[in-house]
Every structure is written in C-alpha cells, then in structure tokens.
Amino acid sequence: QVQLVESGGGLVQAGGSLRLSCAASGRTFNNFPMAWFRQTPGKEREFVAAIRWGEISTYYADSVKGRFTISKDNAKTTVYLQMNSLKPEDTAVYYCASRSNPFGSWSTLSSSDKYPYWGQGTQVTVSS
Q1: Which of 14, 41, 44, 73 is the most buried (most CB within 10 A)?
Q2: Rounded to an integer, what distance in angstroms lies between the CA atom of residue 15 and that of residue 116?
Q3: 45: which residues sit within 8 A by CB, 6+ positions away?
Q4: What is the DSSP string of the chain?
Q5: Chain-centre distance of CA 16, in angstroms?
Q6: What tens digit of pLDDT does each residue of 81-121 get?
Q7: Which residues lie closer than 8 Å to 34 by C-beta, 6 or more apart?
C-alpha cells in the first residue's frame, strides 16, 4: 500500500503562486510515477502534471504548461507542484496520485483510472 498526503492549498489572488506538496509513505519505490490531478464540482478529475520518480521526466496538461512545475525530493519521497501565474480557472481540489507500474506512455500516465493510490485532496481557490 501507498499512502499519500497533500498539503499547501489555500486562497490566493489571480497572478499569485502556491506550492503543493504530496508526501508518500508505505510501499514506495524510486520508479513509481506520480501525478497531480484536479477536480471541480460536477466535472471529471482532470490531469495536471506527472513525473516519473526515478528519472527527470515530466509531462503537463496544456492548460498549465509554462505556469506549473512538478518536481520531486527523493530523500523525502515527496512530490511538489509549484503553481505560478494562477488563474481563477485553476480553482479546484488538487489530488496527488501514484501507481506501482512504472511503465506506460504519458497518455497512460495522464489517465486518472490508471492510478490506484490517491491522497485526500487539497483545496486551491484563486480569486479574481
């Protein structure tokens, strides 16, 4: 089992920044991919960014490319999402996700149904 705990959400004005953290514990391995998704009421969970744990390889949704950065700290088994130039449409509950299968295309790793492990979510609200 893998346990994921997100933190760092909050209220910020448009144009501001936030950094989300996701601490992983339990059965974690250096090659577990990890990802961030977000969800607003009445909508499906949306892919934001993913990182392959054992290598410096990242992938972003077009809507956040150039504004968000996913990174990891191997020593702390923590993944981060640095969010800059935030927009009101970034308002959502942000979830961290992980899977034990290190293989798969970025198309696979951007699909929420490919991740069995999820955190509880952290609310991000961007005011205009």
Answers
A1: 14
A2: 33
A3: 37, 38, 39, 95, 112
A4: -EEEEEE--EEEETT--EEEEEEEEES--TT-EEEEEEE-TTS--EEEEEEETTTTEEEE-TTTTTTEEEEEETTTTEEEEEE-S--GGG-EEEEEEE-S-----HHHHT-GGG--EE---EEEEEE-
A5: 18
A6: 999 999 999 999 999 999 888 888 889 999 999 999 999 99
A7: 22, 24, 50, 51, 53, 72, 79, 96, 97, 98
